[in-house]
Amino acid sequence: MKPHRSNHTDAVQTNGRLKSLVGLAAALVAISISGCTDHAAAPAARAAIVRTEIVQPRDRQVSITLTGEVQARFRADLSFRVSGRVLARYVDVGARVHAGEVLALLDPAEQQADVDAATAAVLAAESQLRVAKATFERQKALIASGFTTRTVYDQAQEGLRTTEGVLEAAKAQLGTSKDALGHTALRAEAAGVITARNLEVGQVVQAAQPVFSLAQDGERDAVFDVYESIFFGDLDGGRVSLALVSDAGVTANGYVREVSPAIDARSSTIRVKVAIQDPPVAMTLGSAVAGTVKAKAQQQIALPWSALMAAGSKPAVWTVDPATKAAALKPVTIGGYEAREVLIKAGLKPGERVVIDGGKLLSVGQAVTYEGDRS
Length: 375
Hints:
Strands 1, 18, 19, 20, 23 and 24 form a six-stranded mixed β-sheet that branches. A six-stranded antiparallel barrel has the order 3-12-15-14-13-16. Strand 21 and strand 22 (341-346) form a beta hairpin. The chain is α+β, with helices and mostly antiparallel strands. It is built from three helices and 24 strands. Helix content is 29%, strand content 37%. It is rod-shaped, with a radius of gyration of 50 Å.
């Protein structure tokens, strides 16, 4: 009977162990279920931290600066009035000349020969005129005495008139020849500076071929080649501030004097001439100058580049609802771009709060928090 009792005891112990294992498994399952329940009920994501700014239009005055060149108000291309071979050249580029100064000479041999021929023609015409006068006076005396015919008298009178005309033509030709001889010396028409030269000694030049360019002394212009889009802005009058590129301390004031009516086909620019008022001595011909013109002040909304986002293919910015602190993407119209800011033309109203930093990871309706506005 004792062995039977031992078996019963073992069975009871085994049954107890099974119950313990079942309890442990139930506890593990409960813990696992509890863990899943806790994960499903995790708290919502934290609000994004961003920097914001209250939209306020500000008075802005945009300035435009371009580089141009100082040029003479009056310039002239000088040329010989006759053709010939260059015998001498007395000036070069950059030379200052006075009115009437000889700049170059042509070989005068051809023109001198024309003068000599014209002089001989005048002497011959004068001799013929003396003969014609004597013939006419003789016929005049004869017809008064009745010893000649009217026909012969008329012929003598016509010969006198013809000879007088020949003499006048010869004198005119002599004057033209002397002028041509004088034109073999090219003279400056006014005081100024030679800015270009297109001849050398020994070169054969044609009449009216430009050989020198003369920038006359006197008034000066600053000449700029500008793009047409600049004229679309509302500029503050025609006042221009000028300064030397090489020395910003040398300044002057000017006003727009002339705007070319045509656009240059190669550069797509318009030439603008600015009259320099009382130009400093340092603003010499050919100097590079910077011209600055300001647009009329107007109220504009300006935001940093970091505020600009996109809604599809259109520009947009993130705004924050003051009541819910939720972010919303709002399309805007760009009015212009600057080095550090973008100008908003439409889409925002004064008083709206705009995200200027931290908007790259935002989503529509996401809660945001901000600590203060941009200073």
